[in-house]
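User: Structure tokens for this complex, please. No commentary.
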Amino acid sequence: MSQQDNVRVARDERTREDRPQKPEVELPSLGFTGTLRFMWTQLTSMRTALMLLLILAVAAVPGSLFPQRPAGPEIVQDYLEQNPVLGEWLDRFQMFDVYSSVWFSAIYLLLFVSLIGCVFPRAVKHAKVLRAAPPRTPRRLSRLPEHGTVMLEPAGPSPAAAVDQAATYLRKRGYRVEVREEPDGGASVGAERGYVREIGNIVFHLSLIGVLAFMAVGSLLSYSGQKVLVEGEGFANTLVAYDSFTPGSAFSEDRLVPFSMSLKSFDAVFDRESQTHYGQPLDFTAVMEVQDGTDGEPQERILKVNHPLDIHNTRVYLVGNGYAPEITVRDGNGDIAYQGPVVAQVQDQVYTSLLVIKAPDAQPEQLGFVGFFLPTAYTGEDGVAVSIDPDLYKPELNLNSYYGDLGLDEGVPQNVYVLDTDDLTELNSRSVDAGGITLTPGESYELPEGKGSISFDGVKRYVGLDIHHDPGKWGVGFFAILALVALIVSLFVRRRRAWVRGTTGPDGSTMVEYGLLARGEDFGLREENLALRRQFERMWPVVAPVDPQNRPE
Amino acid sequence: MQPINLQLASYSDLFMLIAALVYAAAFILFALDMANSSKTIRALEAELAADTARQPEGQLVGAGVGTVPPGQGPTAGTAGAGTGPELVDEDMDYLGTARRPVANVAVALMVIGVALHAFAVIARGMAAHRVPWGNMYEFCTTGALLVAAVYLLFLIRKDIRFLGTFVAGLVVIMMCAATIGFPTPLAHLQPALQSPWIVIHVSIAVLASALFTLTFSMSVLQLIQHRREARIRAGGSTRPAFMQLVPSALSLENWSYRINAVGFVMWTFTLIAGAIWAEQAWGRYWGWDTKEVWTFVIWVIYAGYLHARATRGWTGERAAWLSIIGFAALVFNFTIVNTYFPGLHSYAGIPE
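Assistant:
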């Protein structure tokens, strides 16, 4: 089926919609190819495109109502645990993966098929129009939405000369013109401008395909990962070094750009002047040492929010920060069972930080600790300590301790930030006689029953880094901006046709008729009419109109 | 970081309140003018009659150069008393000397309100040495300023006094929402917002929202006018009188289309600039964050609106509904999504 046919069928379809409903018995006569053709016509009609657009808008909404797996799989897991029945049904309908779901994909793919089926025939048609001369002059210009007539004085130019001059003027106004001789001896000019409007329209729609295509390229070739770095720690860009890693579908490890980096220091500035926003973060600055490749010169570089590091198109982003108290745990035998900084998860604006320590090497019993690190501790009347400032004014650790089997020996992967206390025996907490553990830097605590000891050696800072590589983004950006430019052209360039005909009037003098036709939305056609008329009155000796009906203003 | 000028900030708060009060007064006067429509119409008719007596064939606008007179649709102007001659221009140009003193005072109040309001917004920005759109209070007040300013700019060339009640009303609502709903003391920007993109991305978003607010009021009027025209065609009443001072549904539709087209381009820009900023801040240009989802939904709705204009059976009332739904999504995105939906764009800045 040629594209020309599509256009024709589409037009037939339009007229069919206007007629009263025909009896259904005629349907089978379409046959197989006919049915396909009918479906294709339906799919590529503007009405279907509009419907698909509206459905797409509605279909995108659930993704904002329910937690999404790509954004946070653990939040989805929580949701499923809290809403077992509803959650299961929602999951069945892919409500937690809306934007990669079958139904969402179906809608946008159909929309794009419809778009292609609509835009390609238009492009072919417009390519022909671009090569063709402006349309022939209609017989009766007075039928056009904007039109007018001027009578010239006998001293004025001949019809052919007037049409030539009008054509020159129209060309100057951006029209493509063609002057033709009329059968009755006069002449006329056909003119059209704003061809670029349709080009803009076509380019806009094709650019959307470009955006989608490069998004697909990105999802194949991109990778992203997270890494938490404590002051002094380093990272080399290899798979094992990441805390979590999301590869694109066509990822292979040799795509990782070789570089390494370490966190030299981190500084956070909080508002100390504002009464109302006291303690609000003002600035986060990480000083990084970056080494390009395996043998590059180490360079000191500053990493801030909104200012990622760029290492050969792999970008490193500062997305989080917090405190990592340095802890030493000794077991019942007096041996060191754990030593080092423990990354604590920030819970709120004042950096109340959740801390979990697992010491599976402790003998004779494995030890576990869970509690809070408070950068500026304040103990209220109820005896509960809370943090009241994000800065390290009065750092304090508040911990519970446990002993027993941590469950790490079975090989089941565990979340390092969660301690499952179900199978453990409590040693320290507010609910037992021994009470909870409270430590300030430099202090140690002997665990009850001779199970060991814990000491709080100091506090380091850590940063949460996101590392991204997406070669598709340049293509997406290019086509997005192309789409914007094309959109502006397609909406604001006016496409219109003009015709001017010169004839010899009944009294032998020249009569010039003209008419204008808008193609698509054009609210300036009347102004164009007035502009043409003003120019004609300037160029030629125009007979003053007889009645007020014939005056433009 | 330069300290915040608290003195200037408190002046800003004060002028914001005064501006809101002035807008409220303008709103009341616009509403009075609306209630007095019958009187205005009688005066206009008397004037028209005098005009016609002087100039027998005179249409007010030169329907010259042989064009079809800018019509109210086929029959709108033929039935019932008071709809005989056209009282308002279809292109919303100013006509003759029609006196609407109450409305004119309201417009003057709007001008004063905008001046005070502009001072308040600029003072807030200067007091903190940054753009005045860093939290919801500031989006809302800056947005309201743009709605009022864009309305006044249109008023210079076009007689859209009929929109006054709606625009002033919406501006008052936005000012109340800002000062009562999201009051936020002036502060520095948090690190995530410290980027040149806040200037580009948010300013265009606010401007687009201002345009969509205007078209929303026009689309509501278009629906009312559409029903009234249908009623008149069926030989029914021409009431409400106020709607006689409003252009035809077709004219409203054309104008809201023109403004929505500009708004859509700006929204497209907002989307792209937002994606570029997201890439710089979070490493991905698009991640279906709740705010991104709703920005996309709004974009698709207005894209649908533009397509509806070219679809048989979808112009007129249905297109107006799409414009209204688009605005509803915009308001939802600003209020509910900002405050209740978790996401990366949680910059509402409302103190807990």
